[in-house]
Amino acid sequence: MIAGFHRAAGAPPFLIAGPCVIESEALCLGIAERLRAMADRLQMRVIFKASFDKANRTSVSAFRGHGLEEGLRVLEKVRRETGLAVLTDVHLPDHVKPVAQVVDMLQTPAFLARQTDLITAAAASGRPVNIKKAQFMAPADMGAVLGKARAAAEAAGADPAGLMLCERGSSFGYNNLVVDMRGLVIMRELGVPVVFDATHSVQLPGGGGDRSLGQRQFVEPLARAAVAVGVDGLFMETHPDPEAALSDGPNMVPLDALEGLMQRLIAIAALA
Fold first, then answer.
1. DSSP letter string over 179-226?
2. Is 171 inside any structural domain?
């Protein structure tokens, strides 16, 4: 079960999508409404994603978001007005309880995959958790992370079946990431759903000196490959004007292009 959704055999991969950070209520609602309409047309599950705080920005002057209270207010409104399930990331164990009261799914950031207190708090929350694989970890290493999460979920009486793992690329020298498609198979063999983060996988971390860059043109080729391998879900950040986005614009999918991309990926998934 993923945010209240059972993915039947042959069903399209679910999609986690939205802006990187909550820039404004109006932007989030506008994107979420477009995603809701797309989900209905394509008969697929879409989970809205936006962050209330980006605690891992390259520069101290970069926009981080509007904070926990305002962020949760916006996410609750998106959920209520569009009917979409919502996801946001948590950076601290103290975030987990208030966030879990509002959202349908938690996400732990890739850089924090080895932070035991955060992983166990999220897993014990009773919400599904999308655990991102760190860029510095091998796919099989996520077995230990999953072990921590399962133990915490079981101890708290939560459902360990709500755990999933997310691939977002591995460090390849300086300011570059590469995706090893074998990792998707390896992580699925750990017995949990696997999500492929197609937009962060094309990021060039710190590639702009005081900011990260990205290679948006490679989102679709990598997503096609991941769907052909057989992932359960996709993660893609999207924005109506990526060049004006306040975070991660260079690797985002333009909102106008997202539905066509998903149509092509669903067709590949049906064949795979």
1. --THHHHHHHTTTS-EEEETTGGGEETTTTSSS-EE-GGGHHHHHHHH
2. yes
Tell me the C-alpha distance between 28 and 48, whole Å: 9
Query: Which CATH number characterizes residue 53's domain?
Result: 3.20.20.70
2 assigned to some structural domain: no
- Sign for the CA dihedral angle at 88, 148, 197, 224 comes to negative
Residue owning tokens 């915490």:
152
Whose CA is closest to 15, among 268, 190, 261?
A: 261
Residues 225-244: tens digit of each pLDDT: 999 999 999 999 999 999 99
What gap in Å lies between CA 218 and CA 201, rounded to an integer? Answer: 9
Q: Which domain holds residue 128?
A: 14-270
Q: What is the CA radius of gyration of the chain?
A: 17
Distances (CA, A) of 265 to 14, 202, 219, 272: 11, 17, 11, 10
In a domain? residue 212? yes
Whether residue 1 is contained in a domain is answered as no
Per DSSP, 31 falls in state H
Q: Does this model's pTM top 0.90?
A: yes
Instruction: Give me 129's structure tokens.
Output: 């958790």
Residues of the chain with pLDDT > 70: what percent?
A: 97
The number of angstroms, rounded, from the C-alpha of 268 to the middle of its chain's C-alpha atoms is 21
The backbone torsions φ and ψ at residue 166, rounded to the nearest 5 degrees and listed phi first, read -130, 130
Band of residue 101 on the pLDDT scale cut at 50, 70, 90: very high
Tell me, what DSSP letter sits at residue 52? S
